[in-house]
């Protein structure tokens, strides 16, 4: 729920700031700024709640702590790429792939009742998936519309 609140608050703030500085509305840019802020917010969780995040990864996966830290750093890199016009399309596709790859970890965590913030197994369980799976698809659609769609439409008409 927190990432969604951060995304929406950042989007509204970005709309206002972009309007103030560019003197027009740029919803795609505002959406990329919001997604970048949300990614940095979630990346901080990888560093602040490393133990709990490692519990979201199945036992057969090696180097869990390193993987959690690496994905946190990768989210910061993706956030940066969304803000650089020359990299927004490739970053958008990479982020979509990343979000799809992270969905199984979220499903595993829900099935295992992982509470990543406390590092315990008393999380929300399956009820969490009713929110998390649609949220993951929202992030994917958000990324596609803000970073990729406009570019591909221009390519079709050139």
How many strands in all? Answer: 0
- The helix-and-strand class reads mainly alpha
Could you give the distance between the termini? Answer: 41 Å
Query: Number of domains in the coordinates?
Result: 1
Kindly estimate the percentage of residues that lie in beta strands according to DSSP: under 5%
Question: Helicity level, as a percent range?
Answer: over 70%
What is the tally of helical segments?
Answer: 6
State the shape.
Answer: elongated
Order of helices and strands: HHHHHH
* Biggest sheet layout: none
Q: What would the average pLDDT be, to the nearest integer?
A: 92
The radius of gyration computed from the alpha-carbon positions, rounded to a whole number of angstroms, is 17 Å
Give unreliable regions as ranges: 153-158
Structure explained in plain terms:
The chain has 158 residues and is mainly alpha-helical. It has one domain. The chain has 6 helices and no strands. The longest helix has 31 residues, at 126-156. 27% of the residues are buried.
Summarize the structure.
The protein has 158 residues and is mostly helical. The protein contains six helices and no strands.
Q: Key features?
A:
158 residues, elongated, disordered C terminus, 6 helices, 0% strand, 78% helix, mainly alpha
Please write out the topology.
Layout (H helix, E strand, L loop, with lengths): L1 H21 L4 H22 L1 H5 L9 H20 L4 H24 L14 H31 L2
Helix pairs in contact: 1-2, 2-4, 2-6, 4-5, 5-6
């Amino acid at each position: 729920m927190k990432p969604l609140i951060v995304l929406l608050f950042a989007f509204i703030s970005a709309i206002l700031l972009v309007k103030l500085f560019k003197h027009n509305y740029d919803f795609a840019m505002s959406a990329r700024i919001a997604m970048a802020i949300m990614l940095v917010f979630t990346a901080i969780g990888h560093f602040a709640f490393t133990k709990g995040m490692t519990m979201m990864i199945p036992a057969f996966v090696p180097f869990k702590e390193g993987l959690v830290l690496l994905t946190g750093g990768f989210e910061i890199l993706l956030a940066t790429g969304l803000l650089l016009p020359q990299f927004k399309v490739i970053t958008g596709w990479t982020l979509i792939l990343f979000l799809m790859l992270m969905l199984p970890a979220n499903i595993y965590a829900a099935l295992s009742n992982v509470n990543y913030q406390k590092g315990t197994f008393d999380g929300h369980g399956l009820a969490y998936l009713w929110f998390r799976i649609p949220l993951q698809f929202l992030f994917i659609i958000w990324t596609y519309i803000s970073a990729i769609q406009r570019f591909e439409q221009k390519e079709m008409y050139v």
